Amino acid sequence: MRNKLLEYKNVAARFHTIEGTTSTLNDIDLTIYEGMSLGIVGESGCGKSVTARMPIRLLPEPTFKVTHGEVIYHRDGKPFDVLKAKQNGTQINSIRGKEISMIFQEPMSSLSPIHTVGSQMRELIMQHSDMDKKQAKAHAIEVLEKARVPRASDVYDDYTFQLSGGMRQRVMIAMAISCNPRLLFADEPTTALDVTIQAQILGLIKDVQREQNMALVLITHDLAVVANMVDEIAVFYLGYIVEHGTTDDILKNPKHPYTKALIDSIPTLHSTEALKPIKGSIPDPYAKITGCPFSARCEKVTTRCRVEVPPFVSHENGHKVRCFEA
Ligand SMILES: Nc1ncnc2c1ncn2[C@@H]1O[C@H](COP(=O)(O)OP(=O)(O)OP(=O)(O)O)[C@@H](O)[C@H]1O
Ligand SMILES: [Mg+2]
């Protein structure tokens, strides 16, 4: 039996801005279990980051509003609806960065340029534990070493602007795991890095996940990145999960036309065939969409697809697909 850690139950969410109302998330149903790894994949703007930020309430409320559903965090065996808590109240503050933590795409947006690596880490550790300054420093250096930061005790005294991109990302990982979280969201952790460093950082995230036995949600627009990293994949399109299954099922037996198109658009080194890009583009976030979110770009579209949203249907082995034709 797998223990549930975080559940999204029929979640719908909107942004209300002066330009209008978005339909950012629709009918999101997703369970993250203890220790598992999940990849969230989809094109820009499909709701990946919002999904990750929602449980730790890192979104601009009340511009952002959950209009339906629940996000349940299982804490000490008890379900807790994170959406009912105060955004910056003690309950959320005790989860954010401690039990659920996050690695961001751009480390400089979450690391302070005016404090040393050490003082930022120490503050975070002391906030979430009863360690004193000296103990927190020793722990921070230990965690930097875990994140394979060379000369960890020197880097502890460095400012983040003194570090290379890859090293900043390692520091970010060290910060994210410093309080021993149960769940780590890694939101496009390597897109700003060159490919060799990217592979090292992904390897590091995977090692750390195993060592700490924490759950991992890896977010990327690149299906090839998650292929060797995660147990399960959820494919997002325009705020809907269109397919969810084991990594094997998604890659070897994709059922949704969007997933198939994503797989076809992965470049391979030895292929002589031309790449098949996905036709069309993602519509304006304020546009009103009826029917299947993918209908405007789908080659198998029927009249029904243009008027009705397909339900999220379970197939064998827990493989779920949102498509009338699957
Ligand atoms: N601060 C905001 N104000 C208004 N709308 C927003 C805001 N942040 C996100 N959105 C809306 O939510 C949608 C999903 O955004 P999100 O950041 O989750 O996309 P994403 O899948 O992470 O994309 P990317 O791959 O570019 O990071 C966007 O298309 C946009 O309409
Ligand atoms: Mg994003």
Q: Can you describe what's shown?
A:
With 326 residues, this protein is α/β, with parallel strands linked by helices. It folds into 2 domains: 4-230, Rossmann fold; 243-326, no CATH class. The chain is built from 11 helices and 13 strands. β10 and β11 form a beta hairpin. The longest helix has 18 residues, at 195-212. The radius of gyration is 20 Å and the shape is globular. Bound molecules: adenosine-5'-triphosphate and magnesium ion.
What would you say about this model in short?
The chain has helices at residues 48-53, 90-95, 117-127, 133-146, 152-155, 165-177, 195-212, 223-226, 247-252, 257-264, 303-307, and strands spanning 4-17, 20-21, 25-33, 37-41, 64-75, 78-81, 100-103, 183-187, 215-220, 232-237, 240-246, 313-314, 320-321. The relative contact order is 0.14. It contains eleven helices and 13 strands.
Keywords:
single chain; 326 residues; alpha/beta; Rossmann fold; 2 domains; eight-stranded mixed beta sheet; five-stranded antiparallel beta sheet; 13 strands; 24% strand; globular; binds adenosine-5'-triphosphate; binds magnesium ion
